[in-house]
């Protein structure tokens, strides 16, 4: 939902404090999960069909979009982009050196050799992000390659009606599905020699860009990825200093 209002407060760990006010309505609007003011100026709310219709007529409300659930989707990214050369995209040049790439997916498994930070320079000084610390994901796992990792699940948790603990899901950036790690490595990472699948198909693992940085925003969980969680992750990415398009391989009906 997109609207005009004066102030917001949003963190990934608690509910917003200042919901927008609509004095022309005969009902109150309670925020379901998120407020945004960077990617868009809007908020997420639970409304009946009648309430949604009434709110859509209020001056300043530009659009209202149902909060859809999406799912990770694998694709042959390098070939689709015309970058199927086995040597990768400009591997020996400074192409994309220090560029910060945001990944919105199921998280990351940072111990993978492909996320080594050898031969990388220090993290750019303009970077403002942080690395989440959790029981199964130490903040020390972030390095000069994976420079930040965060989670976003308020809408997902509300939809399930249970806490992440009750759902037996890790609310850390740890990738328990595998898709986020795969998606990240189609774009950014280190070369790995003698790579194989259980000893088969031995060779050298390569990516498209070897000198860029990775920022992880975990927005997808066991039962999907909600638009409002995705949007607030984008808000954080803008504030953090992500520079290029988000790695985003999630399917669903897109409405703008």
Give the SSE layout:
Blueprint: E1 31-36, E2 42-45, H1 49-56, E3 69-72, H2 77-80, E4 100-105, E5 146-151, H3 154-160, H4 179-185, E6 192-197, E7 200-205, E8 213-218, E9 225-226, H5 227-240, E10 250-251
Domain Peptidase S8/S53: 97-244
Keywords: Hydrolase, Protease, Signal
Organism: Sesamum angustifolium
General description of the model:
Residues 38-73 form the Inhibitor I9 domain. One of its GO terms (molecular function) is serine-type endopeptidase activity. This is Subtilisin-like protease SBT1.4. It comes from Sesamum angustifolium. By secondary structure, this protein is an alpha/beta fold. It folds into 2 domains: 1-64, no CATH class; 70-251, Rossmann fold (3-Layer(aba) Sandwich), CATH 3.40.50.200. The protein has 5 helices and 10 strands; from the N terminus they run ββαβαββααββββαβ. A 3-stranded antiparallel beta sheet has the order 9-3-10. The longest helix is centred in the C-terminal third of the chain and has 14 residues, at 227-240.
Structure, briefly:
Residues 38-73 form the Inhibitor I9 domain. The protein is 16% helix and 19% strand.
Order of helices and strands: EEHEHEEHHEEEEHE
- Average residue pLDDT: 77
CATH topology of the largest domain: Rossmann fold
Shape: elongated
| CATH architecture assignment name of the largest domain | 3-Layer(aba) Sandwich
Q: End-to-end distance, in Å? A: 10 Å
Spatial ordering of strands, largest sheet: 9-3-10
CATH homologous superfamily heading of the largest domain: Peptidase S8/S53 domain
Strand content: 15-25%
Helix content: 10-25%
Radius of gyration: 20 Å
Give the total of domains. 2
* CATH class descriptor of the largest domain: Alpha Beta
Major sheet, described briefly?
Answer: 3 strands, antiparallel
Protein name: Subtilisin-like protease SBT1.4
Family: Belongs to the peptidase S8 family.
Domain Peptidase S8/S53: 97-244
Pfam families: Inhibitor_I9, Peptidase_S8
